[in-house]
């Protein structure tokens, strides 16, 4: 009988200690919030931009083409940086091919097999011929998106000039593939639909729908990456307040990595859908 009170007193003591520790955590969080508010009200900068200053700048040697400014636009500079990264990666992989692949070759093989799998599912075996377009676009977009997570680097895909260039390239390419396979007359014929009597109505609808594709592709990618980049820039601009930095590290960084992969996947999948619709044998039904 004497043991029971001792155990009860020990359990009560543990519960009180846990409660005290829990209150201590809330007190610390509250103190951090108050400190951030006070510092933010009295010391924080009132000029936080949506885009940070680029870490890399190149002199504007394209001024003779009408490009304004002393420096090249950041999206052009970082586009070339992404291109350089991909070219070097390709050269390293192709120069070190072995029967037993090393780490870099293994990564390259996984990437290529992944693209092959998607192309086989969406287009069929013939889809592997479109790997240069789909793979290059996918790797370029993914690498560009990931640059948003490096302070001082601006992702090219956060600029509409880059995304519209990618979208127009896809638009011109899949229409070229369709015309090359079916001929101009047959390819344009599918815009009229299966019922000839409805051709005057279907043709302008389908034509406008195709013209809207590069607009939707470019705006979707640009809007998501630019919005994410703006939030990250604001948080890093206030990182000396501690709390915004913790928000970026704990929430925005994982979300940014996820968004980079998802937006790349969406762009690549839509590109394959458009190509599949252009080169399919039946060509009576259009993929949307």
Structure description:
It is a single chain. With 288 residues, the protein is an all-alpha fold. It has one domain (48-279). The chain contains eight helices and no strands. The chain is globular, with a radius of gyration of 27 Å. The termini are far apart.
Q: How is the topology of this model organized?
A:
Layout: H1 3-42, H2 74-95, H3 103-122, H4 131-146, H5 160-182, H6 184-189, H7 199-237, H8 243-279
Keyword list:
288 residues; mainly alpha; 8 helices; 0% strand
Number of helices: 8
- Overall average pLDDT: 79
Number of DSSP-assigned strands: 0
Question: C-alpha Rg, in Å?
Answer: 27 Å
Globular, elongated, flat, extended or rod-shaped: what is the shape? Answer: globular
- The count of domains is 1
User: How much helix is in the residues?
Assistant: over 70%
Proportion of β residues? under 5%
Helical/strand content category: mainly alpha
Distance between the termini: 78 Å
Low-confidence stretches: 1-8, 43-50, 284-288
List the secondary-structure elements in sequence, H or E. Answer: HHHHHHHH
Describe the main β-sheet briefly.
none
């Amino acid at each position: 009988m004497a043991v029971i009170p001792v155990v009860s007193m020990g359990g009560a003591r543990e519960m009180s200690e846990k409660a005290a520790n829990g209150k201590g955590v809330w007190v610390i969080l509250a103190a951090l919030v108050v400190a951030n508010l006070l510092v933010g009200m009295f010391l924080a900068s009132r000029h936080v931009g949506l885009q940070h200053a680029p870490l890399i700048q190149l002199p504007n040697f394209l001024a003779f083409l009408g490009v304004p400014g002393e420096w090249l636009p950041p999206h052009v500079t970082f586009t070339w940086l992404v291109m350089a990264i991909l070219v070097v990666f390709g050269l390293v992989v192709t120069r070190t091919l072995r029967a037993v692949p090393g780490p870099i070759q293994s990564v390259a093989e996984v990437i290529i097999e992944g693209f092959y799998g998607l192309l086989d599912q969406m287009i069929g075996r013939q889809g592997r011929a479109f790997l240069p377009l789909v793979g290059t676009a996918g790797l370029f977009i993914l690498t560009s998106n990931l640059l948003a997570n490096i302070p001082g680097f601006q992702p090219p895909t956060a600029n509409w000039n880059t995304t519209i260039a990618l979208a127009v390239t896809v638009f011109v390419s899949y229409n070229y593939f369709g015309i090359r396979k079916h001929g101009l007359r047959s390819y344009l014929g599918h815009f009229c639909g299966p019922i000839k009597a409805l051709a005057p109505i279907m043709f302008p609808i389908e034509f406008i729908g195709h013209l809207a594709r590069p607009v939707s592709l470019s705006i979707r990618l640009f809007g998501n990456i630019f919005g994410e980049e703006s939030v990250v820039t604001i948080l890093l601009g206030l990182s000396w307040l501690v709390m915004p930095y913790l928000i970026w590290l704990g929430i925005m960084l994982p979300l940014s990595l996820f968004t980079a992969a998802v937006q790349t996947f969406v762009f690549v999948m839509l590109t394959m859908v458009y190509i599949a619709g252009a080169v399919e044998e039946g060509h009576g039904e259009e993929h949307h």
